[in-house]
User: Which sequence fits this backbone?
């Protein structure tokens, strides 16, 4: 029982030791709310992929910021940030 617990603890420690937190952000301004949000999401996704050279994530990426606000007459700016834990090479 003790050996199993120690082995499990070592595996969990190694799993967390080989990950690092990464973020990808994007922003877009458009007259169409959905288009601005979609473009911001695409940029954030691309930047998150670029931040993780291995391309593997320890846990599913989570959208941590998703907000839009008026940028001027008839247009909106949307900002999206996605956070994940990247597996190191």
Assistant:
């Amino acid at each position: 029982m003790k050996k199993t617990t120690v082995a499990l603890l070592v595996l969990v420690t190694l799993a967390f030791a080989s990950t690092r937190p990464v973020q990808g952000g994007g922003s877009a301004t458009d007259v169409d709310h959905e288009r601005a949000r979609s473009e911001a999401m695409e940029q954030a996704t691309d930047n998150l992929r670029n931040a993780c050279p291995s391309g593997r994530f320890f846990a599913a990426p989570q959208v941590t910021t998703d907000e839009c606000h008026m940028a001027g007459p008839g247009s909106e700016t949307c900002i999206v940030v996605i956070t994940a834990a990247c597996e190191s090479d």
Summary: The chain has two helices and three strands. The CA atoms of residues 26 and 43 lie 5 Å apart. Residues 5-14 have pLDDT under 50 and may be disordered. The two ends are 32 Å apart (CA to CA).
